[in-house]
Amino acid sequence: MPGPRFDIITLFPDQFPALVELGVVGRAHKKQLFELHCWNPRDFTDDPHRTVDDRPYGGGPGMVMLAEPLVRCVKAIRDARGDQAPLIFLTPHGPLLKQADIRALCAQDQGAILLCGRYEGVDQRFIDEHVDQTYCLGDFVLSGGELAVACFVDAWVRLLPDVLNHALSATQDSFESGLLDCPHYTRPEVFENKAVPEVLLSGNHAKIESWRFEQAKAYTERFRPDLMKNLPEIDTKASTKGKPKKQV
């Protein structure tokens, strides 16, 4: 069964080859676990200059992406795909993208059409009529949507079966249980006079699991206390108030 297909609408398709050549995503692409196709709106224009933007009505700085080339581009993509995959736009106007959102989209197993915004924005009429879902990566601004879309695809692909070397790797990541991940250690056993916590050397898997859970709660309460509000089932009283528990 073929993996999900990602169709990316971008004015700079040359930004994406590295995404499918390197690291975890690159290995997954070589194994044909997903498809990635880039579409340039300039290829769907009629004028000699291949115009994809114009000045905003009402004045102001910058340019706005034209709706018509985008509509033509989306039609060509849907004809090529033959399905109703969601058209997703990463924009400050969307809700904060969360791991649960990625998991839900991944479960649909069809991929998505991803719009990379540029300039001052995209003609709102295109967004209103053709965009199915918006998300925001955070309260900051990028010069274009390509980096945001690359992050989105990376987060999605690593959840696909057979992508990561260990099947449990993704399930133990930060945010999967609602908590941040616990701290990790590797060789040497002592580094700059700091030793690995004894419990991790004990071989007692039950104690190790309990320690990691407590550390995850403590780290979350310290660095992302906002996440704790959404976890009523966790005994937050067991964690410390200002910092992770002392590691023993």
From TrEMBL:
Entry's localization field: Cytoplasm
Cellular component annotations (GO), alphabetically ordered: cytosol
Catalytic activity: guanosine(37) in tRNA + S-adenosyl-L-methionine = N(1)-methylguanosine(37) in tRNA + S-adenosyl-L-homocysteine + H(+)
Pfam families xrefs: tRNA_m1G_MT
Molecular function, one GO term: tRNA (guanine(37)-N1)-methyltransferase activity
Keyword terms, alphabetized: Cytoplasm, Methyltransferase, S-adenosyl-L-methionine, Transferase, tRNA processing
Keyword tRNA processing set for record: yes
Gene3D superfamilies: 3.40.1280.10, tRNA(m1g37)methyltransferase, domain 2
Keyword Glycosyltransferase among record annotations: no
UniProt binding sites for S-adenosyl-L-methionine: 117, 137-142
Enzyme Commission identifier(s): 2.1.1.228
An example Gene Ontology biological process: tRNA N1-guanine methylation
Signal peptide location: none
Subunit structure: Homodimer.
Cited function: Specifically methylates guanosine-37 in various tRNAs.
Family: Belongs to the RNA methyltransferase TrmD family.
Protein name: tRNA (guanine-N(1)-)-methyltransferase
